[in-house]
Amino acid sequence: MESNEEDEVLFDQPTTFTERREIAQSCAASLALTMPCVVDDMENTVDEAYCAWPERLFVVDVEGRIAQAGMQGPFGFEPSEVKEWLRGNVGKPRSDATARE
């Protein structure tokens, strides 16, 4: 993407999971993310299941349901929205109004 070129966020397509993980670590560090991040497998299993391309943030509850879904990135990638949601909902009883199936 042009914005990646402007921001000098350029990586070769990874061919191994180790390469993919290293790129993800670099991106998380550049974004100063303090939350845990998960890297999809080389078959993009999670991306396919959640329509997450090119990036997207989800909160999945203990029952495996989507509790909060962020907009697709890169321009809808807002870690602060997830942070606010977590602060407002973690430790509170789950209700159908706050969870999306």
Question: Summary?
Answer:
The protein is mostly helical and 101 residues long. The protein has helices at 2-6, 17-30, 45-50, 79-89, and strands at residues 58-60, 66-69. Strand 1 (58-60) and strand 2 (66-69) form a beta hairpin.
Give the overall shape, derived from the CA principal axes.
Answer: globular
Encode the helix/strand succession as letters: HHHEEH
Please give the share of residues in helix.
25-40%
β-sheet strand percentage: 5-15%
Oligomeric description of these chains: single chain
Q: For the residues shown, what is the average pLDDT? A: 82
Main beta sheet: 2 strands, antiparallel
- Rg, rounded, reads 15 Å
Distance between the termini: 32 Å
Spatial strand order of the main sheet = 1-2
Number of continuous helical runs: 4
- What is the SS-derived class? mainly alpha
The count of β-strands is: 2
The low-confidence parts are: 97-101
Description:
The chain is mostly helical and 101 residues long. 36% of the residues lie in helices and 7% in strands. It has helices spanning 2-6, 17-30, 45-50, 79-89, and strands spanning 58-60, 66-69. The protein has a two-stranded antiparallel ribbon with strand order 1-2. β1 and β2 (66-69) form a beta hairpin. The longest helix has 14 residues, at 17-30. The protein is globular. The N and C termini lie far apart (32 Å).
Give the helix/strand layout.
Layout lengths: L1 H5 L10 H14 L14 H6 L7 E3 L5 E4 L9 H11 L12
Antiparallel strand pairs: 1-2
